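Usage

Read records sequentially. Each one opens with the input sequence:
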Amino acid sequence: MRASKGKKRGNARKARCGISAARLAEMIEEATVDAYDECEQATGWFTVLEEHLDLPFETDVLGVRVVVEAIDLRDDNRIVAVCTRGKEKQAISIADLPLRTRKPAGGEWIEAYRHWLGGL
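and closes with the structure output:
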């Protein structure tokens, strides 16, 4: 019984991100092809995000409008969004970055990354 609940939860995650299971599998394969360890996988995800995500874009963080100016791959293999508001700048894990209902072009790659991390 426990396995079926997990399976249902997994299917709900796919539906919530709006990407079909087949497309998610393709995106994950594209990002992680030939990646053999955590570092290589993080680099693969960073590369596809950098290639497909249309920057800059606006979103809201804790009720404050920010501009995502760039993404960065940190030494600990975390991918972060570099957010600015005026002269202030802060890095937020891209997995935790709130996205508006109207996602930026390439925003589906953030959703696929979250799914791959298991955090959707």
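Summary fields computed downstream for this record:
- The two ends are 22 Å apart (CA to CA).
- The chain has one domain: 2-117.
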